[in-house]
Amino acid sequence: MGRNHHEALEPAPDATSTAETDELFAVLSDSNRRFVLSHLAQRETPPALDPLAGALAEWNDDLTREDARIALHHVHLPKLGDAGLVEYDETVRLTDDAADSLDLVEDV
C-alpha cells in the first residue's frame, strides 16, 4: 500500500527548529521590526529608544516619532527581545545570536 497523504504533513524530526523558524518568520513579518534590525545592524553604537524611534518615524511615514516610540516600547522591542534578536535597556542592540537567526532566514 502507498503512503497516506497525511504522512507528508507530519512534523519533521527536528520540529523544534521548525517551530523556532516559524516564530522567527512571525516576528520578521512586520516591516517595522525588519527596519529596526537593519538599522541596528548598520550602526556601530547602539541607539537609545528615542533616536531609534526618530529613525523609524522617518522611515515609516505613517508613524509620528511618539507613535514610533510607543510601538517600539510596547510591541516591537518586546517581540524582538522574546525572539532573542535584541536586548534593550538604556540602548537597543542586536544580540550575539541575532546574526545566526538572520542567516537562518536567508537560508530558507
From TrEMBL:
In the UniProt record, the signal sequence range is none
Annotated region described as Disordered, given as residue ranges: 1-20
Protein's UniProt name: DUF7344 domain-containing protein
Please report the stretch or stretches of sequence annotated as the DUF7344 domain: 25-91
- Domain of life, per UniProt, equals Archaea
Native species? Halosimplex pelagicum
